[in-house]
Amino acid sequence: TRQHIVYLRSFDQDHYFLNNRNIIQNFLSFLKGRTKLDTIMIEECSTIGPVIAMGDPQEKDKQKQPYGPSRYYAENSEWKNHVLKILKDAKYIYMFLQGTDGVVWEVEQLVKLNKLKNTIFIVAPRSKVNDVIKFFNMIINTESLTIDSEKKKRIIKMINNNEIIGFFISGTNEFVVLEGKNKSWTSYLIAIRSSLRLKER
Questions:
Q1: pTM of the entire predicted model
Q2: Please, which of 48, 74, 81, 168 could form a disulfide with 120 given CB 3.0 to 4.6 Å?
Q3: pLDDT, tens digit (0-9, with 9 covering 90-100), for 57-78
Q4: Which pLDDT value is given to residue 11?
Q5: Cα(174)–Cα(183) distance, rounded to whole angstroms?
Q6: Three-state SS across 134-167?
Q7: Of 114, 122, 119, nearest to 97 (Cα)?
């Protein structure tokens, strides 16, 4: 009966392994199976609601789904309709920003469906600075936010310096920045955990 949480990303992210700076931490993370974003999403968000995602069509014929959010495998002609369906009833949406056509379309739908306040935007491990700035401008230009020109300049500078790991719009219409100077397992864990706690507050 709980509202679900949607996990949106480019499919190539599913094959990306997160690292920590410490070699021992990397080894322990590997042993525990904690090397991908899927694991963080399912372990941090499942206490709030079921986590669901679109499945990579190339994995459809496998006997078992990968560990992580429950996946729906859509045909090429229907995936957009299914995304629209799961977005409408979502409690929260974690949108991992990357400059692919699919991600651009999904962000556009979040704007059209008035779901920006339900969304936590996370900078994907392989995202490019220019793409993140493009998404940032797209988002702030569609909402009447309490963000002045100086703050906007500071945020763009931080994005250029790879000092931001995510951002979202609070219930009071403020633009909240999640700072992070490296895209490690720990950085994503803290970003997802803290954003969820701030949203639930």
A1: 0.88
A2: 168
A3: 777 666 667 778 899 888 777 8
A4: 86
A5: 24
A6: HHHHHHHCCCCCCCCHHHHHHHHHHHHCCCEEEE
A7: 122
Distance CA 57, CA 199 (A): 32
Amino acid making up residue 166: G
DSSP-assigned letters across all residues of 27-46: HHHHHHT--SHHHHHHHHHT
Instruction: Classify residue 95 by burial, with Cβ atoms within 10 Å: 0-12, 13-18, 19+.
Output: buried
SS3 180: coil
Residue with tokens 């100086």: 150
Exposure class string for 32-56: b at 16+ Cβ within 10 A, else e: eebbbbbbbbbebbeebbebbbbbb
What residues does 8 pair with on adjacent strands? 95
Cα four-point dihedral sign 112, 126, 191, 152: negative
Q: Which structure tokens are listed for 89? A: 């009833």
Sheet containing strand 164-169, edge to edge, reads 70-72, 51-54, 5-8, 92-97, 119-123, 164-169, 175-179
DSSP-assigned beta bridge partners for residue 72: 54
